[in-house]
Design goal:
Elements (H helix, E strand, L loop, with lengths): L1 H13 L1 H10 L19 H4 L1 H4 L11 H15 L3 H14 L4 H13 L3 H14 L4 H13 L3 H14 L4 H13 L3 H14 L4 H13 L3 H14 L4 H14 L1
């Protein structure tokens, strides 16, 4: 029984760095063999906003005709999946209209999509000088810092998100994963509980709280939380695997 529990604990600790990549890239499996320097963020939180944001701006939001021209060219480039060209045009928008945070977000999104993560980070840093409390910008830069394993700095930005949007389950979830990496397990567990409080239908909150239960030997709690995760997302394979291990330990 002890050997099985040791196996579970070892497995959980091995996948912790990869868990951050999982949450950022919105994957459903743990990519344990991926290099953080080569991680593809094209499906990250930042990028998922691009379709939502595109098309919502109209000429009345962009008073300078030069900015509007660059905006139209940027949208055309996005539709053609020419993300580097789109980012160049969003820089043009910002040059003539720097008062809207949405353009900074779109610039960063397209830089990420074109693989220019360092440039995206620099653009986000600049944007935060103008919009220091913007939750979307802080979330995006936090994601990049987490992938770089600059965990304390990432936490700082996720906390800004939480301060601006106390109901941000994603910011709590990623903060909890980082606390795990830093071996602050009690803080991690409390943070996962916050995920469930602000978003009871979030299966990942139950999944990661169950991981903490396993690490601390609270197997009955782990079983309950894993079952809750699977009720919400039956195809969550890691929850099924951990639940099988817990049931094996309990006999």
């Amino acid at each position: 029984m002890k050997n099985i529990l040791d196996r579970i604990s070892s497995k959980l600790r091995i996948v912790l760095p990869a868990a951050i990549l999982l949450l950022i890239s919105s994957c459903t499996t743990f990519p344990t063999d991926r290099d953080p320097q080569n991680i593809d963020l094209s499906n990250s939180y930042a990028v998922k906003l691009v379709e939502k944001l595109s098309g919502k701006q109209t000429q009345k939001n962009i008073r300078d005709p030069r900015a509007y021209y660059h905006y139209l060219m940027a949208l055309q480039a996005v539709r053609g999946h020419q993300f580097e060209r789109a980012s160049e045009n969003f820089r043009g928008v910002i040059q003539f209209n720097s008062s809207d945070s949405k353009f900074y977000r779109q610039l960063a999104m397209n830089l990420v999509r074109s693989g220019k993560i360092d440039d995206a980070y620099k653009a986000l840093e600049e944007s935060l000088h103008h919009f220091p409390d913007n939750p979307e910008l802080n979330m995006m830069i936090g994601d990049i810092l987490a992938v770089r394993e600059e965990y304390e700095r990432a936490l700082n930005h996720y906390q800004r998100v939480i301060q601006a949007q106390s109901g941000s389950a994603r910011a709590y979830l990623l903060s909890g994963v980082i606390y795990e990496v830093l071996k602050q397990y009690d803080v991690a567990a409390d943070t996962y509980k916050r995920v469930i409080q602000v978003e009871p239908s979030n299966p990942m909150g139950y999944h990661y709280l169950a991981r903490m239960n396993i690490l601390t030997g609270k197997l009955e709690d782990a079983k309950k939380h894993l079952n809750q995760a699977l009720e919400l997302r039956p195809n969550l394979l890691q929850s099924r695997e951990f639940l099988a291990w817990v049931l094996e330990v309990q006999g």
